[in-house]
Structures are given as structure tokens and as C-alpha cells.
Design a protein that fits this description.
This protein has 265 residues and is α/β, with parallel strands linked by helices. The protein has six helices and twelve strands. The strands form two sheets. The chain has a seven-stranded mixed beta sheet, sandwiched between helices. It has a five-stranded antiparallel beta sheet with strand order 6-5-10-12-11. It folds into two domains: 193 residues, Rossmann fold, CATH 3.40.50; 47 residues, no CATH class. Helix 1 packs parallel to helix 4 and helix 2 packs antiparallel against helix 6. The chain is globular and about 50 Å long. Strand 8 and strand 9 form a beta hairpin. The structure holds zinc ion. The site of zinc ion (ZN) has 4 residues, from loops.
Length: 265
Amino acid sequence: MKVFISADIEGTAFTTYWDETELKEGIYSRAAQEMTREVRAAVDGALAAGATEITVNDAHDWGINIDPNEMPECVELIRGWSGSPLSMVDGIDESYDAAMFVGWHAAAGRYGNPLSHTMSTKTTRVTLNGMPCSEFLLYSWACAMKGVPTVFLAGDRTLVDDSASLHPCLRTVALKDGFGGMTRCLAPAKAHRLIREESEAALRQDLHTAGVTLPDHFELRISYKEHKNAVKYSFFPGCCLEEGNTVVYESSDYMGLLTCAYFCL
Ligand SMILES: [Zn+2]
């Protein structure tokens, strides 16, 4: 079994402030260590379920957060960014049996995590086909585009609740709740145990029933904090300026939508 894992940091067990997520000395190193441990727990769950090849995409910021020394032999780690609109799931292809997401966070404008955002912090609200457009929605559908089912998600409770119905065999672990600028977090030891157990259970399901069929038509609606960004990104091919701060992109081609998201978010 071949498994793809994409990892972020704002949805890990205790990150609360942006300073914890930015590559530098100090409190960031604790968060990067936690991200590494949560990914390792998902890797261990996958191994227990019979995975033989695991690819991990380190998909936060510079893409060099996970400590490679903590990965076992069967893991290949993707670091940095190629420039492809596949972005946080760059490296995914039809050869994988399942995708899993660890450390992911709620969409722009959503409560439940002080670090809620979608790709950047320049938007107030992003929707895809009327749903809150989390990075998880964007890139788990990218996996579906490649025929790879998404079966596991660990992140904040709002993202987990928003995502429950997106994939038929999705198993989840909610690692923290947020209210305003505050978080209430699981102890890391419990987070790691739940991630290991649930990722194993996720991969032990009948993966042939885990896929989704993507919609025929996609509508991405992006509201920017600043009007000048709405004007700027309305010039992306296929985008229209609507109201003062909102840009709308419509397509029946999901790779086109990912390309719009890559350049406009
Ligand atoms: Zn991130």
C-alpha cells in the first residue's frame, strides 16, 4: 500500500500564535517538533495498516519544518515548493492508494482557530461551491482529481466539523478548539495516540469505497481584506470582480481552479 501524507502546522495540537508557525529560533522549534511528532504518529498508523511506501509533503511555509531524522526508512519527504498549483499535495499521482492530512486548520473567516486562513492572510472569506474553502477542501479534491481517496484528517475541530461530509470514509481527530484568540488543546501524548490509532483505522477501511466524484462545475469566491487586491486578482484569466472586495472564478476544470487558487489566494 502506497500512502501520501500532507502536513501543515496551524492545525497541530497547540499552535495558537503566528509566531509559533514562523521559521525562526525560539517557540517555533517546539511547534515544528510537534508537527514532526504528529506526522510520525500518522506514519506509524500507516505502517501498522500495511503501508509499504509513504510520501510526506512538508506543506507549511518554506516546507522545511519536519525533522527528516524522525522519519523511518520507508518515508520519502517532499521539502520546499516546485511552483506547481498542486501546491500542498505536490507529488500526488494516480499510484497512491490513499491520502491523509495532518495538522490542517479551518478556512479563512472561520472561528475555531486563531490561525484560520486559506493559503494567505489577505482574504476575509473564501468559498468553493458555496462551502467554506479550507486548504483541506482544495487539496483533498486535488487528490480526488488524481483518483486518490482521502481517508484521514487531523486538525482543529472547526475544520474537522466543516469537512466531515466531504469524503465517505474520512476518519478524523480534532486536536484543539479555538474561541477568539484562545485555544484549548489536547495533550500531545493523547494527540499522537489518537492520530496513530485513527490513521491506522482509516487505512484498514475498504479504500475502493472511499473516493468521491468531483462536481461538474466549480465556483471559487474570494473576498479580500483590501479592495486593491480584488481589483488586481480580477485580472487573472477567468476571474470577475463582484461587489467591492470579491472576485469570482468559475470553471469546469479543477486544475484550472487550483491554478486560480495558487495565484489569487
Ligand atoms: Zn501552514
